[in-house]
Write a structure and sequence with these properties.
The chain is mostly helical. Helix content is 86%, strand content 0%. Helix 2 runs antiparallel to helix 3 and helix 4 packs antiparallel against helix 5. It is globular, with a radius of gyration of 16 Å. The protein starts with a helix and ends with a helix.
């Protein structure tokens, strides 16, 4: 049963459009930031560290896959650098304020990409 689900999951990811994949990454980033925030409240530092690490990996992937043939990529690159910097600060300080500042920025970017995908 688990193999069937994994196959289904792999197939759905392989058939996603780039826009759908981008939204999935932003949704996962949002989920990991929320998980890190909740882990801090519970003082579950293992889960907090894992959630921040995964958030960094997602942002780094988004940064690494930018296409600099488009001018918007330079602005996104700067934004992703800011995200990475803030995530490193949050990781070191273990303070939720940084997460609270990042979440609306991530949501705004996600919503902008969702709107652009609808128009495309």
């Amino acid at each position: 049963m688990a193999n069937g689900y994994q196959s289904y999951k792999n197939q759905s990811i392989m058939t996603m459009t780039p826009g759908e994949m981008l939204l999935l990454l932003y949704d996962e980033l949002t989920k990991r930031l929320l998980r890190a925030e909740l882990a801090l409240q519970k003082k579950d530092f293992g889960l907090f560290d894992a959630s921040i690490k995964r958030s960094v990996e997602i942002v780094q992937y988004l940064k690494d896959t930018l296409n600099f043939n488009y001018e918007i990529s330079r602005e996104l690159n700067t934004m992703y650098d800011f995200f990475l910097y803030e995530l490193s600060r949050v990781s070191a300080s273990r303070k939720a304020e940084g997460i609270a500042e990042l979440k609306p920025l991530v949501k705004d970017l996600r919503d902008s990409f969702a709107e652009a995908a609808k128009r495309a």
